[in-house]
Amino acid sequence: MGSSDGSDARKRIAAVGAVAVVGLAVHTGIPSSGGRFPAHSAAKTVRAVQDAAAGVAVGPLPIAVGTGRHRAGPASPQASQASAFRQIILPDLLLVAPKGLTAAQISSLRNITGLRDMITFDGAQITVGSRTASVIGVNPATFRSWVPLSTASDQPFWSALSQGSFVASTSAATSLGLRVGASYQLRGATTQVVPYAMAARLGLSGVDLLVDQSLSRKLGLAHQVAGLVSAPGVSISTLTKRVSKILGPSGRIEVLRSQRLPVATVTPGTRPATYLQLFKASAAEYCPGLSWTVLAAIGQIESADGTNVGPSSAGAMGPMQFLPSTWAIWGIDGFGETGPPDILNPYDAVPSAARMLCADGAAGGGQSLYGAIFDYNHADWYVNEVLALASEYAADYQ
Question: Looking at the structure, do residues 74 and 93 belong to the same domain, yes or no?
Fold first, then answer.
């Protein structure tokens, strides 16, 4: 994930940090001679991404099983939990108004054509004991949608924040030496003795601590000094110009849509040997322009890369979880496979998913990609999970 210099980021309240799902990895096992990728056991979350990047076979940790056009039925408990807080929102811009955003500016920002969501929050630098830290004051019920899914789903984290404790990013908890259950003097415009609850990944470099709005007022944090906006259907240059015009010369903007999802190039005729290679090759061959990370995210969410191939309660099967009726339309043989397309064979299923996404316009990116993923599964939370996890893969698999 992109980030700016830590000290500079703290001066701006927050810095670049992509919202993404954490603790997941693409399986890197070698296929068996029968064309099936082998099942694998779960690895510890803390090592998953590191091991996968090194080529070690690790077990991905599933977060949700999709439902939708090709997979009907109730959402998983994880998905239901996510939907309770308005889903994961992918921020495109962080904006900072040193004197605070005015009501007129907020109204104008919300009226930008194509803007899907926006949130504002208080912020300042304070001291924790004798150490300096950046803190933002948020409404826990709404801000949690803007952080990584694993953190957004951590109910104790948000309950503690709502009950007046302060919480921290994982990196800040370590650097500040915070101890769970201890109380600390937080010095802003006033000094407050506040219990520290816990840490989690926030996905925003430069943000050390979170407090709720009540504690924010007591500490005297600058009111509505910053905000996040999400407008996935608007080009980043157009969005930046529109926001900049509203903020004026004193405003500052950080682009959080910090990278395009990578498009893979592969050697023609090379048979993939791992899921990672299969996602890259399928995107390159069956949907040029589609990022392989989207296929990787769908494969992880749908079946944990082939570890849960169904059938589901609705009858969906295989690593990409097709209904047989949908498979009859889109299923193809891929990468030298012969005979009838096999819904359980990843060499057929992943290319078939790429083909179906491509027919829905996924290679066009932007709103077209959003629409194609939505067509794959008719749920906004699903699209947001796919895009967030795709961003994580883009950062971890350079």
Answer: no
Q: Are residues 374 and 387 located together in one domain of the fold?
A: yes
Distance between CA atoms of 291 and 298, rounded to whole angstroms?
A: 12
The overall average pLDDT reported for the chain is: 77
- In terms of domains, do 199 and 325 share one? no
DSSP string, 83-119: HTTT------EEEE-TT---HHHHHHHHTSTT--EEE
Residue 269 lies in a domain: yes
The residues, ordered by sequence, that sit 6+ positions from 40 with a Cβ below 8 Å of its Cβ are 27, 29, 57, 58, 59, 307
Same domain, 282 and 377: yes
Q: Please say if the pLDDT value at position 22 is more than 50.
A: no
The string of pLDDT tens digits covering residues 116-162 is 899 999 999 999 988 999 999 999 999 998 887 668 878 999 999 99
pTM of the model: 0.56
pLDDT in tens, 242-288: 999 999 999 999 887 655 677 877 777 778 888 889 999 999 999 99
Q: Tell whether the model's pLDDT for residue 6 goes beyond 70.
A: no
CATH of the domain at 56: 1.10.530
CB environment 234-248: b (16+ within 10 A), e (fewer)? bebeebbebbeebbe
230: enclosing H helix or E strand: strand 222-230
- Position 242: which residue type? R
Dihedrals phi, psi of 96, to nearest 5 degrees: -130, 130
Cα–Cα dist 14/123, whole Å: 9
Spatial separation of the C-alpha atoms in residues 290 and 175, rounded to whole Å: 40
